[in-house]
Amino acid sequence: MLLKKPTSWILTIFLGISVCTYAQKGARVGYIDMNVILESVEEYGKASQLLDNSIEKWKKEIELKKIQLKQYEDQLNTERVLLTPELIKDRELEINDFASEIVNLQEKRFGPQGDMIVQRSKLIQPVQDQVLTIVKQIAEEKKYDFIFDRSSSVTMLYSAKIYDISDLVIKRINRQQRIQNRKEQLNKLKAKTNSLNN
Predict the structure, then answer these.
(1) Fewer CB within 10 Å, N side or C side of the chain?
(2) pTM to 2 decimal places
(3) Using CA atoms, how far apart are residues 147 and 163, in angstroms rounded to an integer?
(4) Are 27 and 144 in contact (CB under 8 A)?
(5) How far is residue 128's CA from residue 43's CA, in Å, rounded to a whole number?
């Protein structure tokens, strides 16, 4: 089907030429391995350890509740012959309520908006944001068109090491950390000097 307006033809031709020119230029592509980068960042290790400790504590809390629930069920089964039907029904309701509490606790700790997600966001997100900021800076400086994360769900069947900028990202993060540490040491020294002068 032919386009009726001449301006549409011109626009179509212009867009076609632009796309061809861009395709011939070639895109600069790089990639990172977020897992390798994060494992090399000291702050990420500390944050992960704090999160792991909390998860272990929450799992133990839930396991203790489950053991307690089992004890209640066993106790009811043992005493069932001695209890009236009304008492049995009351105890079963109590046990069902306790089981519901356990389910609610699991949801509170490990659900989609649970404590684990919230704490992971608070502890780990700042480090990931720092990495992404540095990746963006490198992409702009080195004029990359695309940077992929090798560790994400994007399937990368082959990648030449020359395009891996993970080491560059790690170096920049370490440099920022050293600068931050120096600033903190200088501030401590200034505070100490000020307290000695007073």
Answers:
(1) N
(2) 0.60
(3) 9
(4) no
(5) 10
